[in-house]
Automatic annotation (TrEMBL), chain A:
This is NADH-quinone oxidoreductase subunit J. It comes from Acidicapsa dinghuensis. The lineage of its organism: Bacteria, Pseudomonadati, Acidobacteriota, Terriglobia, Terriglobales. It catalyses: a quinone + NADH + 5 H(+)(in) = a quinol + NAD(+) + 4 H(+)(out). Belongs to the complex I subunit 6 family. NDH-1 shuttles electrons from NADH, via FMN and iron-sulfur (Fe-S) centers, to quinones in the respiratory chain. Couples the redox reaction to proton translocation (for every two electrons transferred, four hydrogen ions are translocated across the cytoplasmic membrane), and thus conserves the redox energy in a proton gradient. It is a multi-pass membrane protein. Its EC number is 7.1.1.-. Its main location: membrane. The chain crosses the membrane at residues 6-26, 33-50, 56-77, 89-112, 139-161. It is found in: Cell membrane.
UniProtKB/TrEMBL annotation, chain B:
It catalyses: a quinone + NADH + 5 H(+)(in) = a quinol + NAD(+) + 4 H(+)(out). InterPro entries: NADH_UbQ_OxRdtase_chain4L/K, NUOK/Mnh_C1-like. The gene is nuoK. This is NADH-quinone oxidoreductase subunit K. It is a multi-pass membrane protein. Its EC number is 7.1.1.-. The keyword Transport applies. It is found in: Cell membrane; Membrane. It holds the Pfam family Oxidored_q2. Keywords: Cell membrane, Membrane, NAD, Oxidoreductase, Quinone, Translocase, Transmembrane, Transmembrane helix, Transport, Ubiquinone. The chain crosses the membrane at residues 6-24, 31-54, 60-84.
């Protein structure tokens, strides 16, 4: 059982990290978005392995279902499907990798040197039912605020992305018809 | 029972990959995707701790992070499209001003 669990963990971790690596390094933006979707799926499976059914399925619905599609739409709307004309890496990529390595070293150091927790609490497992009850009682005010934030964000997104026909700066003519 | 530290190290790896993508890529959309990756890596930490302590709070926090990330995704991609309309490029070296 333990062996099977750890095999499952390693396979999922491999897919997740490979997807993240490809998303961070690949040249083609569509490939990046698809690799990122693999990472999202791997994370959803990891959440399910951790007995977090609610977070796992919410991850699938929100990220794989919505955010990935949104990113692909943004890529296609900005005609970035091919390799861009400019170099894809910044000139200071070496410093960027060094900073990322420092971040990883700090995080890994704090994880490894921390004391292992005991057996954990004896409380029963978290079920979707208990999450729903907590959301509807203790956390009902944040829930309502998040609902308002989402509504405002969606209206704002539509207004920001709305095409202003009278704008002289638009590049319709420059880009040419599709 | 897989030790929680494995999940935390995996979360650190994913977060660092997000930092790499954020810092070394020139495309605005890739920068945006790297932010999403970092948010997800932190969510993995939350779920790990929630699993370890059998606490409902971890998953509640993951829920709120996801909702705010969804709002951020909608507004961020709208801004990216607006920037592309105004500038015809998504190279971060050329969109470094706060005005269009």
């Amino acid at each position: 059982m333990i062996f099977g669990l750890s095999i499952a963990f390693w396979i999922t971790a491999l897919f997740t990290v490979a997807g993240a690596l490809a998303a961070a390094l690949l040249k083609n933006l569509v490939h990046c978005a698809l690799s990122l979707t693999v990472t999202f799926a791997g994370l959803a499976i990891l959440f399910l392995q951790l007995d977090a059914q609610f977070a796992g399925f919410a991850q699938m619905l929100v990220y794989i279902g919505a955010v990935a599609i949104l990113v692909v739409f943004a890529i296609l709307l900005t005609r970035g499907a091919g390799a861009p004309e400019y170099r894809i890496y910044t000139s200071s990529w070496l410093a960027g990798i060094a900073i990322a390595a420092a971040v990883f070293a700090l995080l890994a150091w704090s994880v490894i040197t921390s004391l292992p927790a005991g057996a954990g609490s004896a409380a029963p497992d978290v079920t979707v039912l208990s999450i729903g009850q907590a959301l509807m009682s203790t956390y009902v005010l944040p829930l309502e605020i998040v609902a308002v934030v989402l509504t405002v964000a969606l209206i704002g997104a539509v207004i920001v992305a709305m095409h202003d026909k009278g704008d002289a700066k638009t590049h319709e003519q420059k880009g040419g018809a599709q | 029972m897989i030790p929680a530290s494995w999940y935390l190290i995996l979360s650190a790896v994913l977060f660092s990959l997000g930092v790499i993508g954020f810092l070394i890529k020139r495309s605005l959309i890739t920068v945006f995707m790297s932010i999403e990756l970092m948010l997800n890596a932190v969510n993995l930490s939350f779920v790990t701790f929630a699993h370890q302590w059998h606490s409902v709070k971890g998953q509640i926090f993951v829920f709120f992070v996801m909702m705010v990330a969804a709002a951020e995704a909608a507004v961020g991609l709208a801004i990216i499209i607006a920037i592309f309309r105004a500038r015809a490029t998504l190279n971060v070296d050329q969109v470094d001003l706060m005005k269009l």
